[in-house]
Write a structure and sequence with these properties.
two-stranded antiparallel ribbon, 247 residues, 36% helix
Length: 247
């Protein structure tokens, strides 16, 4: 699948001019060189971040490479890598994808990831790359899972298997936006599960979870807990956009 996708993308970029997903300037690439350079110089991945949750570190935290929150209460996940801040250049394109159903933006966002940090993760030791799932009700309403649409286009080692089916989610009707950390943690408990047929294949494996946005970390922490309860040995988060402190 990957080779044909790359061929069609190359043809598209050279023959069909488009608009940059961030500045809307008309040119031939999905993100222009000016915006790409801005991200390359100032995005979150350039800064010292917590090795566990990916939040930008404050000065007293740098020595341990961990934020105070992770020092006091260690999450279930082991590592987190984020491309940029939620308030940065890619927030609007992500919203266009999620809420305006502009599926082409998934390709542009994954391409931005690939260009900026993809090469750093090609040799990551992992067995599976899974998106944060949507419930069947939410998936039917939106029509697609934005995390999967980005994740499936991300470059990673050929040894890493991508699949949207292993991790499942129960439906929860209330929105978490604006909720406190404690409320988020309580609301998300028991929401995720591993498909019964896939439990055995996860034993002693390393799993990468891809999420479009990480805010409090409650969702990714619950996913990591469920995965480790089902035999996974290590959980790594790859996140497009990370919310800053405080939540």
């Amino acid at each position: 699948m990957r080779i044909p996708e790359n061929i069609f993308q190359t043809i598209y970029e050279h023959l069909l001019p488009t608009a940059c997903i961030t500045c809307q300037e008309f040119q031939k690439f999905s993100i222009c060189n000016k915006c790409l350079d801005s991200l390359r110089d100032g995005a979150l991945f350039n800064y010292q971040c917590c090795c566990q949750c990916g939040i930008a570190l404050q000065a007293p935290e740098v020595a341990l490479q961990k934020c105070v929150a992770c020092q006091h209460l260690e999450p279930y996940f082991d590592e987190t890598y984020c491309l940029d801040r939620y308030e940065g250049l890619l927030q609007k394109p992500l919203h266009e994808l999620k809420y305006q159903k502009r599926i082409a933006f998934a390709n542009a966002l994954s391409n931005t990831w690939n260009l900026l940090i993809g090469k750093d993760f090609v040799n990551t030791h992992a067995d599976y790359l899974l998106p944060v799932p949507l419930s069947t009700q939410k998936l039917a309403q939106r029509g697609f899972n934005q995390s999967w649409e980005i994740a499936r286009r991300i470059y990673c080692g050929q040894h890493i298997q991508k699949t949207p089916y292993v991790l499942q989610r129960h439906h929860y009707s209330e929105h978490q936006a604006g909720s406190s950390l404690n409320n988020r943690q309580q609301a998300i408990q028991g929401m995720f599960y591993v498909a019964a047929d896939d439990i055995q294949k996860l034993q002693n494996k390393t799993v990468i979870i891809f999420d479009d946005v990480m805010t409090s970390g409650a969702t990714l922490n619950e996913i990591a807990r469920v995965l480790k309860d089902n035999g996974v040995s290590r959980v790594i988060n790859w996140v497009l956009l990370r919310a800053a402190r405080p939540i």
